[in-house]
Amino acid sequence: MTTREATAARQGLGLAAISFLGLMTAAGLAFLPLKAALGGAIGIAAAAVAMFRPEYGLGIFFAMIVFITDTVDGIPGRTLTILDPDPPGFPPATVSFLLFLALLTFFRRVLLERRKSLVSTWGVVAFAGIIALGWLTGQAGGWPLEDLQTDSTRWIYPLLCFFICANILDSYQHIGRFLAIFFAACAVKAALLLAYFAAGRGFIYESYTIVSRDSAELMAFSVMLFLAAALLATGRMRGRQHAFLALGALPLLGALLFAFRRSHWLGLILGGLLLWRWSDRIARARFVRYALLGLALAVPLAIMGAVYGERGLSGELARIGARFTTFFDTRQHSNLHHKLEAWYTLQDLLEQPVRGLGIGSKHSPVPSELVGGWLEENQPTEVVHNGFLYIWMKLGLPGLLFILWLGFDTLRRLGRYWRDMPDSPARPLVAGLAAVFGVWLPMFLTGPVFSYRHQSYMLVLFLVLIRNLVALELRRAALEGQAFSEPMPERTESLSGARTT
Fold first, then answer.
1. Number of Cβ within a 10 Å radius of residue 373
2. What is the pLDDT of residue 188?
């Protein structure tokens, strides 16, 4: 199909989509309740946006993930849930939109534009085979069919998300537009969460409230905070861009501090160290000034917290300090349970280390007398609070090795990028996004990341963004160098590892 034919086809589809949107909206308003009609109209409008501006459609999808809390277990009316995660009679909104985006991306790229997918075929086949092996292992283990089906989606949906993100975020322009939408969504959600928390309507956690318990949105807040810091430290942001990043970064930092999630605090520290390591000398000097300014503000506030105890902000800061000390308390309930849970799961895995326990499986519970009388039947044995053991348990050793290879391959590409392109203009962007490795490590060590679909989507998004940006930069440098030296090679490496002609 020629460029002119593809343009004409898109224009025809655009006219059809607009006509369909108008007809369906009119019919909905005529025959359906107002809420249902408006919801349908918004859904059709989002579909039209995704058709003609796929990067905006992807931005809408991840904004939905930010605004739909994946772990809502507080008191109704107190926690902040802007969108209903499971409308009655419908599948979860994010699942529906994910399936639509996957179908639309395949239709646009493969059928309409006749371009190859940027996702490596062998990688998809290998991971699909690993999922099939996990299903067969779980079936042989006698786990219930419902658990097998539910567990399978935790691996199939991230694979679809990888396909979508890799093929949509394939240019600097698409990545820039998407990140602007996503950063704005994260900043707004963080500000709303902080407002709810300040009004005493945060998430219930033990005997007090916190800003959020959702690790998906906290992961997003961390990375967007790193990204804002990296871009501000370049000194190239001016005017509205500078104000947009600076104002957005403040609620992101506040939400992370008052979430009281220890793994994300540790992720902030490790991610900040990686951002420091991967930034240039000028940016590092600015980071030092930011840190000194933060300490100048934090020290007197911490002293006030120690003096005035539970009063207002100072009391919250004192509670942050007390929460930090639980990192090293081996008798703290969650620390003790997670350690023993990992030990008993490891014993189960060593009985069949290659196949694991399979999709839909459960591990042995921790004896109740070891965890303060927590009854074994009430323990969440379908997950293990260690991401590496969780993958091994569900997908066996092949699945664990595949995920580890994907992570190390991304680090290898980053290493090549830092070595070959020290003066890359995209360095702050890559450094801010790549700092997510510091967030992932404590998350994987303390939680079953893939058991929550929103966490999986976020993990895939940032992995693809790093790989695609590095590939774009390396390709640009290769093309600029070859323009003065030698002809273009016949084969080049695609954004996600596939080989293209």
1. 7
2. 93
